[in-house]
Structures are given as C-alpha cells and as structure tokens.
C-alpha cells in the first residue's frame, strides 16, 4: 500500500496546518492517538506513513499531563512492525522551559520537568525522536490570533515578559517544516521574534540592551524560527 500522510489533531491550529499541506499537494488523513492503542482510524492495511503530524491538545487528568505516555501505544505499534513512519512532526510548547526561571533560552537549551505539564511535553518530545530519526519538534510560544483572543502578550506583560506567535503564522511555519526532512532531527523554538515587556514589543536579541538586565530576573526566549504575519 502507498505510504500516506496523517495528522492527529483537527483543532484550530491543526485544521490550518492540514489545509496548508493539502494546498501543497500533501493531503493529510485524520487519525486518533491513544496511549494504549496507538494510531487508530487509519485505512485498513495501512503500514507505511510518509508524514505524521501530531498537533493535538490531549485531555489532562487532574494534576497530570495528558501528554505523559500518550505516544506509548504508537511506539508499540512501530516496535511490532505494524507501522513504519518516515517523518514525524510534533507541535510542542515552550512550557518545556519552565525549569529555567531566569536567563536566555533557545532551542538547544536543555530542559527537564518542572511540573506535570512540562513533564508530559518532554516525555512526548523524547518519544517523538524514538519514532523516527527524521523528526521535528516545534515548540510554540503562547498562541494569539483568531480563536486565541484570551492571550494578549501586550496587556499581560506589565510584570512578567511575554512571548507569542500568531496561530496563522504558526500554521504556515509548521506546514513548511513538515516538508523539510531532517535526518538528524530538529528542535524549533518559535515566536514572533519579540519579547513583550510592559506592553511594548522588543526584538528578541541576546545583545538587545533592554533585555540584558531583564534576563537576570526573567526567562527570555530567543527563537530559532520567527513566525509572523506578512504585515506583522
């Protein structure tokens, strides 16, 4: 059977990613992901997946992360030889940096669990790398834009610096990275290129004078990839 492209997650972000990849000639079939059963809802006799995009928000049990162990069933399917995955893309979050309270962090900064949330995300990232050497882990800052109006980095940055990325720009970047194979794997830290401080956007640059002193008291993220709208 010909290898297929699959997406888990058809929410506000996932739908946009799927539409963009379909427009690029890579339509994605929706599937469900279970910690026990792995990928379900695939066409009968599917064994080869060319591209798997994991762009979902799992249900979180009280005081736990729904990400913890979520990829175990999929790993078991691959170990049994039931599925073979070419490229896998995981949409993660900059919440993995919770262990760093101060200083500059970037895509290569080591992370470790500091809460149930970050523990689950880090577990999912580690297991994504086990699924295929050709993988991309995309850590998104706080999402803004249509459907995400509750997060406003300007108004929420009076006391704590904020980072953000528009959902439409994030979807475009995810779709683009999904089509760029990386034999050694890739981690991307994605923001709109700014740190929001007391309502003002400041370029996220390690040499920016306004950020150097701020980094002594706050965690500031330096993006490996900047995603912003054309007029942003």
In summary, what is this structure?
This protein has 232 residues and is of the alpha/beta class. The protein has helices at residues 12-23, 72-79, 116-131, 167-178, 209-212, and strands spanning 4-8, 29-30, 32-34, 38-40, 48-54, 84-93, 103-105, 135-140, 142-144, 164-166, 186-191, 194-197, 200-203, 219-221, 225-226.
Keywords for this entry:
232 residues; Rossmann fold; 15 strands; 22% helix; seven-stranded parallel β-sheet; alpha/beta; 5 helices
Strands of the widest sheet, in order across it, are: 2-1-5-6-8-11-15
How many helices in DSSP terms? 5
| Secondary structural class | alpha/beta
* Level-1 CATH class name: Alpha Beta
The name of the CATH superfamily reads: NAD(P)-binding Rossmann-like Domain
| Percent helix | 10-25%
Number of strands: 15
> What are the secondary-structure elements, in order, as H or E?
EHEEEEHEEHEEEHEEEHEE
Which architecture per CATH? 3-Layer(aba) Sandwich
Number of domains: 1
The poorly predicted ranges are none
**How does the overall form come out from the CA principal axes?**
globular
